[in-house]
Amino acid sequence: MPNTFGHLFRITTFGESHGGAVGVVLDGCPPRLELAEADIQRDLDRRRPGQSQLTTQRQEEDTVEILSGTFEGRTLGTPIVMLVRNKDARPGDYAEMKDRFRPSHADFTYQSKYGIRNWQGGGRASARETIGRVAGGAVARKLLREACGLEVVAYVKQVQDLMAVIDPGAVEAASVEANAVRCPDAAAAAAMFERIDQARRDGDSLGGVVEAVARNVPVGLGDPVFDKLEADLAKGLMSLPASKGFEIGSGFGGVLLRGSEHNDPMTLEAGRVRSRSNRSGGVQGGISNGEPIVLRVAFKPTATIAKEQDSVDESGRAVKLAAKGRHDPCVLPRAVPVVEAMILLVLADHWLRHRAQCGA
Amino acid sequence: MPNTFGHLFRITTFGESHGGAVGVVLDGCPPRLELAEADIQRDLDRRRPGQSQLTTQRQEEDTVEILSGTFEGRTLGTPIVMLVRNKDARPGDYAEMKDRFRPSHADFTYQSKYGIRNWQGGGRASARETIGRVAGGAVARKLLREACGLEVVAYVKQVQDLMAVIDPGAVEAASVEANAVRCPDAAAAAAMFERIDQARRDGDSLGGVVEAVARNVPVGLGDPVFDKLEADLAKGLMSLPASKGFEIGSGFGGVLLRGSEHNDPMTLEAGRVRSRSNRSGGVQGGISNGEPIVLRVAFKPTATIAKEQDSVDESGRAVKLAAKGRHDPCVLPRAVPVVEAMILLVLADHWLRHRAQCGA
Amino acid sequence: MPNTFGHLFRITTFGESHGGAVGVVLDGCPPRLELAEADIQRDLDRRRPGQSQLTTQRQEEDTVEILSGTFEGRTLGTPIVMLVRNKDARPGDYAEMKDRFRPSHADFTYQSKYGIRNWQGGGRASARETIGRVAGGAVARKLLREACGLEVVAYVKQVQDLMAVIDPGAVEAASVEANAVRCPDAAAAAAMFERIDQARRDGDSLGGVVEAVARNVPVGLGDPVFDKLEADLAKGLMSLPASKGFEIGSGFGGVLLRGSEHNDPMTLEAGRVRSRSNRSGGVQGGISNGEPIVLRVAFKPTATIAKEQDSVDESGRAVKLAAKGRHDPCVLPRAVPVVEAMILLVLADHWLRHRAQCGA
Amino acid sequence: MPNTFGHLFRITTFGESHGGAVGVVLDGCPPRLELAEADIQRDLDRRRPGQSQLTTQRQEEDTVEILSGTFEGRTLGTPIVMLVRNKDARPGDYAEMKDRFRPSHADFTYQSKYGIRNWQGGGRASARETIGRVAGGAVARKLLREACGLEVVAYVKQVQDLMAVIDPGAVEAASVEANAVRCPDAAAAAAMFERIDQARRDGDSLGGVVEAVARNVPVGLGDPVFDKLEADLAKGLMSLPASKGFEIGSGFGGVLLRGSEHNDPMTLEAGRVRSRSNRSGGVQGGISNGEPIVLRVAFKPTATIAKEQDSVDESGRAVKLAAKGRHDPCVLPRAVPVVEAMILLVLADHWLRHRAQCGA
After folding, report:
1. How far away is chain D from the Cα of A351, in angstroms, using its nearest Cα?
2. Is the distance from CB of D105 to CB of D303 less than 8 angstroms?
3. CA C230 to chain centre
4. CA D161 centroid distance within chain
5. How many Cβ atoms sit within 10 Å of the Cβ of residue A172?
6. C-alpha–C-alpha distance, residues B191 and B310, integer Å
7. Per-residue pLDDT for chain D (360 aa), expressed as one digit of tens each?
8. Which end of chain C is more exposed for a tag (fewer CB within 10 A), N or C?
9. Which helix (H) or strand (E) holds A352?
10. Which residues in chain B have their CB less than 8 angstroms from residue D12's CB?
11. CA dihedral sign of residues D31, D36, D38, D43
12. DSSP letter assigned to residue A178
């Protein structure tokens, strides 16, 4: 359903960017997991605006409150509600958008679908909605780390045509956080920083690619036929604002190879079945094979820009529109923790699903 | 759930490639739609193996039988079951695979997950499973054509590095069917045919890209937040065997542009809000905006090849493996109707969902 | 899923009785419905404890806050979150229950299932959880009243062996609210009041039956096979704390009749198909037939009583237990608005489902 | 969704009584369970018409075929399709019902909802639909017996005012099958037989109550809040054709007691927490407590009778109607295996759900 993701480990997010609050209900989490606000806040702080000059300057503390589902620092097995109050709401910045549609944004489609919209900042289409995803993902992270040492690391792989060189098998979370771009290739990060900052000064925006890896994934997660692991990952990541593409393993580049070149040769390593290459990206037949899951998400340049654009208004007149105040020149650095969250949510869900059917 | 796709217009597929039958239960179809076996058979015949030398030579008529859900040629509003008996089952061809895992195939992961597998032809991981999808998609096609003149056309856009030039706004279904490759660019099709046939002779396989367009899509289909139209399309298409990537509109290429270049300028055309370009690919904020939906799916080269490969067997010994008998050098021509089916299923589902919530 | 009810008009409740808050996420509500806190508060006030000497004396204002999903007084089509903070939490009253299980309560089963429980007041098993149901039901009430003039009225029909005489076809909401028992038969209400008050003085509790009627239900709501209207109503009402039985129309009494006596003769009335009797209770084959839906729910006497009882504690010793402080001698008067809410939620859901599949 | 029941152990039934076939897709069954047609046929034979003079004389062998989901006699973890072809279709018997609505049957409501119906025998509203339930329940029975020795026994407790005396804690399946009424109290069974046979001769029908017990149910099955075990049981049983009431444990009779009389005193027995009485019926707070689950379902007398009744036809004229040919004087004996199936399906589903969330 529209605002719910997952089947057994399941989140429902709620809240408009300029309503009272945004948040999430997480249902299905196993009981007795140690959980405190600090576990959540860590990831929320990575998603928060205003971390550097590269992001929107909206000032929000985004302090999370756990309203239910825990007792004496542990989960109860009941719904965990995590809430963040909206504070820095400046609807005035959006007055111009009250009856004008931002090109390539959700303004026109929401208005057409519902006959009403919260024009103050995008409503549900705002990146603020992802707070609930990150909060839910933080719980999944803790659960899977304890259950099987699983870890997920995402990072900026590409900004426009600037490509970083990163080994998904070895990249560390700390190196991602080492710079404002969240690109662990320091040289590429510096060039990306410059490029984004220039776009910011131009009132324009840039797109790029976030890559992510999940390591220590147990063999056997994912369900044929429709709930293949890559299908659920694709859904989760293509549900992110501004995403336009998804690939796993060899992806679009893999089509250039012949089968004999593309197949991952199987081998035995310390008594365990492994593959010598990983063009499969950690999934075969929709089920994890124990190799690292490697995927990439393409994000278009943000639609809301300060440059003037051609648009129409609600009464059907051609108008000009330029965003005032806050404007995010590149969504990628802040998208990194959200990408991680979606992957973690998918894996936690399938971990429970596998346990249900196969008792593992 | 694993074998179910869709929420209101919903299919559940069943059947192994070498069990008694494969098929689908379609639940939620509106009543009083005219429907006969011939409506289904047309698309099944496009998916059937043995159509040309490019595909696997398994000989199956794949004749569909409607077991329930219709009465006097019209749908009842009850579950429609469509069944295809398995006929050309030659389990002997698979004897070698009984305890050997095909590299990059589902053999190892199924065995690891379930502790059992139908090794005769891939079981649920077989392309035969897509028969149920195509049957369900054929009903969706009929429903949406009558409801709003909606049409979906898919075609082979790329084989290895061979790229076709096709205008998604104008391409006709008939031109797709004009050659065995299902590529409406005749010159490219001829080159692709040669390339695939060479791979066949080499006992090898090729991958590529299928592109698809949906036209006359009503404004307003798709649900924020998780069930964005592109998210559900991505899930549906990434659930296809051998798919490794998905993109919509500008996709991965769109990351090269700045926001001011990427945004689709809005304009009025005959009183209707349109966009002058379509980098959005027909969706904005997860909701259709009335422009054609354009998407692409990357398929890796098929894993099952006649060339000898390194593998392991169930007891953990290194072995060599080469497929006998049937072998599909390129899955793309037969994937075309399956891609169309998945898109139609997603759109039919969201058409009903929109009607439920917004009464449209 | 555990904390979610409904398919298209769908609530997820959350919150423990002694956590930070209780509340509900309502997803799927059509857009542009006028909605304010006052619409919700009205029904919450009927559910609130402390209304008369018959109910638990816990003092809670239960003031609802709408956190999301509305804009300028109308619904947006996005999730509506309604929150009530817990205030009168006196965990001290529950100290004795920390390691002692109340007989016939959820203490032992929660502890066995989860290995942890919030022992302060019952956690999710508390009647406080029903706040979210009532809030969601209030929105359903408004939606259905505007859509088709539908109304639902529940009332206390029986307390122990005291039976009221009430005509479900004519009973008015105002007469239900006319006394503290919520029984519109004034004479019976007076006797029930005495009986309940005596139980209160004895530190004991009473059970009974709530009857409800839904009028102006459109023909055609309900889905064969598993989602028959009576099946969904049964599920909703049997999910209420302390409910032990459900019946619709003739119910258990109907088994005494022969088919020729039980069948409702069909007739035409002002051009409309009606039935001359209503032993069907408004549903036939799981689908509403336009007659009033009449049902009854049996509630056992509340488990928590002030009288001393035999129990065991967590370490497995036989102990005695008597509830301190608050104790609810009869749950029925406060169950009345909750029963109405569940019926309204089921009907709103099926109203949307019918619109989706049949376009009505 | 309409034709699907269960969440993890999940059936989708399909088929009209006079279409090509009826059957079921069972999804979510754990792999490696031994399963053959004989396991299913046993319960189907108990449901089959024509077993005695008490049931409808329709002659159907109802031979089940497993189409998918097993391999070499064990389940694969993939969807199990079980199919029964319709054979004894005599649509002529229904010619009169083509445009006449049977009173208290689904004819009018189906026609109103869908604008079309299969008038040959009731379509989906036919008791034939329950074949799929029984087939699914037979798999659940096998799974739960092996997993935890769980067993479910149902029997006819009451026909009209004739009540049997049966101890749910001790009743054996064999004694249920000892007579045509499926009432293990032989004296009551004889009286019931006479009563039903008289109704048959009168062209009339009788209702009654089926009671059921589940023993060896593990502690901890059932989910707060909406998916309480009794709520899911109520939904499953109230979805059966002709059911009008459901109760668990003390049920409607329990409202006569005070809390101090109704509460089940807790005690320790061989180191295990038990209750000295079982008015809870095996569930507390929606979760199984390890005591036998005891429930009852009220079935109204069948609507289709040979006696002439007042009705209307599709064009809105008052008509008389009397069923020809087959007519079932009492649905109870054949409802017994269906009641067992629904209970088993609910328990299997919650057994998997519990394993998912709590790892038990």
Report:
1. 9
2. yes
3. 15
4. 21
5. 12
6. 31
7. 799 999 999 999 999 987 789 999 999 999 999 999 999 999 999 998 878 877 765 666 899 999 999 999 999 999 999 999 988 666 666 777 788 999 999 999 999 999 999 988 788 999 999 999 999 999 999 999 999 999 999 999 999 999 999 999 999 999 999 999 999 999 999 999 999 999 999 999 999 999 999 999 999 999 999 999 999 999 999 999 999 999 999 999 999 999 999 999 999 998 899 999 999 999 999 999 999 999 999 999 999 999 999 999 988 899 999 887 667 899 999 999 999 999 999 999 999 999 999 997
8. C
9. helix A332-358
10. 12, 25, 27, 79
11. positive
12. T
Chain B positions touching C8 (Cβ under 8 A) are 356-357
Assembly ipTM: 0.97
Distance CA D278, CA D276 (A): 7
Closest chain D residue by Cα to residue C355: D113
Provide the 10 A C-beta neighbour count for residue A177. Answer: 14
- B64 Cα to chain D: minimum distance (Å): 13
d(CA D110, CA D118): 9
SS3 A117: coil
Residue identified by tokens 């295809």 is B84
Q: How many residues does chain B have?
A: 360
Half-sphere exposure of C342 (CA within 13 A, CB side): 32
| Of D88, D350, D309, the residue nearest D227 (C-alpha) | D350
Q: What is the pTM (predicted TM-score) of this model?
A: 0.97
3-state secondary structure of D16: coil
**Distance (Å, whole) CA D282 – CA D50:** 35
HSE at residue B341, side-chain half, CA atoms within 13 A, is: 29
Residue type for position B340 = E
CATH architecture of residue range(s) A4-358 = 4-Layer Sandwich (3.60)
Dist. CA B100–CA B107, nearest whole Å = 8
- Closest-CA residue to D265 (of D257, D254, D276, D253): D276
Alpha-carbon gap, residue D294 to D169, rounded angstroms:
9
- Mapped onto helix, strand or coil, the DSSP state of residue A125 is helix
Q: Which residues of D touch A (CB under 8 A)?
A: 8, 28, 30-31, 77-78, 224, 352-353, 355-359
| Pairing label, strands B243-248, B293-299 | antiparallel
Q: Shortest CB distance from B31 goes to which of C77, C224, C358?
A: C358
Q: Give the neighbours of chain A: at least 3 Cβ pairs within 8 Å.
A: B, C, D
Q: What tokens does B198 get?
A: 């060479």
Q: Which of B116, B228, B238 to mutate to test the interface with A (most CBs of A within 10 A)?
A: B238
Tell me whether strands D80-85 and D21-27 are parallel, antiparallel or unpaired. antiparallel
- The span from the CA of A288 to the CA of C96, in Å, is 49
- A176, A211, A305, D276 from A158: Cα distances, Å: 14, 9, 20, 68
Q: Do C352 and C81 contact (CB within 8 A), yes or no? A: no
Secondary structure of residue B189 in the 3-state scheme: helix
C101, with CB counted inside 10 A (0-12, 13-18, 19+), is buried
* Domain residue limits, chain A: 4-358
Name the strand (E) or helix (H) holding D47: helix D37-47
Q: Is the dihedral of CA B183, B187, B188, B193 positive or negative?
A: positive
Q: Which of D14, D116, D123 sits opposite B74 (nearest CB)?
A: D116
**Minimal CA separation from D30 to chain A, in Å:** 5
Compute the Cα dihedral for C189, C195, C201, C204 and give only its sign: negative
Around B171, how many Cα atoms within 13 Å sit in the side-chain half-sphere? 28
Q: Which amino acid is at C147?
A: A
Rg, Å, chain B Cα set: 21
CB-nearest to D355 from A31, A78, A359 is: A359
Residue that has been written with the tokens 């109802």 in this structure: D62
Residue with tokens 């365990």: A272
Distance of CA D243 to the CA centre of its chain: 9
